[in-house]
């Protein structure tokens, strides 16, 4: 069985991430979406909130599950019995960081490969940080995230008023 993990911060999950999950789920037998629990990053959403939103979003994909992880990605991959990490590449600017991460992971675990999905062109501009900024200034984020996430973002920023 070919299993893959798709790790990220997903703060919040965007249509760009969802497109990659959909495509990966067609190629691999099983995909585990791993939400990084990293206190030092000071996320907008708690890890539990991000996991809940993702679970709702992938509800109709039977071969996808969502869980959180902390610590090293190589350890998470081992715990999931996976030798494949999925990452999205939006533009050449992503490449340097992704290459460095993938090579570092392969040194720690030579059996772990990273498979890059080129982001759909219509999402190549999209990032979670841009979505957070637009939402912070009460801009319309409906083109970037599903309605469920939009609702949760609206709640976050109205809580912060
Ligand atoms: O969505 P992001 O923030 O680009 O995802 C980055 C992520 C979670 C894939 C990366 O930060 C990660 O793997 N963190 C776990 C810690 C780790 O293994 N670091 C060493 C790899 S360079």
Describe this structure in words.
This protein is α/β, with parallel strands linked by helices and 161 residues long. It has one domain (3-159): HUPs (Rossmann fold), CATH 3.40.50.620. It is 43% helix and 19% strand. It has helices spanning 15-27, 47-57, 73-79, 92-108, 128-136, 147-159; strands at residues 3-8, 30-36, 64-69, 84-89, 113-118. The strands form 2 sheets. A 3-stranded parallel sheet has the order 1-2-3. α1 (15-27) links the parallel β1 and β2. The longest helix has 17 residues, at 92-108. The chain is globular and about 45 Å long. The mean pLDDT is 95.
**Could you tell me the strand content as a percent range?**
15-25%
Distance between the termini: 49 Å
Number of strands: 5
Please state the CA-atom Rg, rounded to the nearest Å.
Answer: 15 Å
CATH class: Alpha Beta
Mean pLDDT: 95
- Specify the structural class: alpha/beta
Cofactors, ions, other ligands: 4'-phosphopantetheine
Report the major sheet: 3 strands, parallel
SSE inventory with pairings:
Blueprint: E1 3-8, H1 15-27, E2 30-36, H2 47-57, E3 64-69, H3 73-79, E4 84-89, H4 92-108, E5 113-118, H5 128-136, H6 147-159
The structure holds 4'-phosphopantetheine.
What key attributes describe this structure?
about 160 residues; alpha/beta; Rossmann fold; 3-stranded parallel β-sheet; 6 helices; 5 strands; about 45% helix; globular; binds 4'-phosphopantetheine
What is shown here, in short?
This protein has 161 residues and is an alpha/beta fold.
């Amino acid at each position: 069985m070919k299993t893959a993990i798709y790790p990220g911060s997903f703060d919040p999950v965007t249509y760009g991430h969802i497109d990659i999950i959909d495509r990966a789920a067609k190629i691999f037998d099983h995909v585990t979406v791993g939400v990084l629990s990293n206190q030092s990053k000071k996320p907008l959403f708690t890890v539990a909130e991000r996991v809940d939103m993702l679970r709702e979003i992938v509800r109709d994909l039977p071969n996808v599950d969502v869980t959180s992880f902390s610590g090293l990605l190589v350890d998470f991959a081992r715990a999931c019995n996976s030798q494949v990490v999925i990452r999205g590449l939006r533009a050449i600017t992503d490449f340097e960081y992704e290459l460095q991460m993938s090579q570092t992971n392969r040194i720690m675990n030579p059996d772990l490969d990273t498979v890059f999905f080129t982001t759909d062109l219509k999402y190549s501009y999209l990032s979670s940080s841009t979505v957070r900024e637009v939402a912070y200034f009460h801009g319309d984020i409906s083109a970037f995230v599903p309605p469920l996430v939009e609702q949760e973002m609206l709640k976050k920023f109205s809580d912060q008023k």
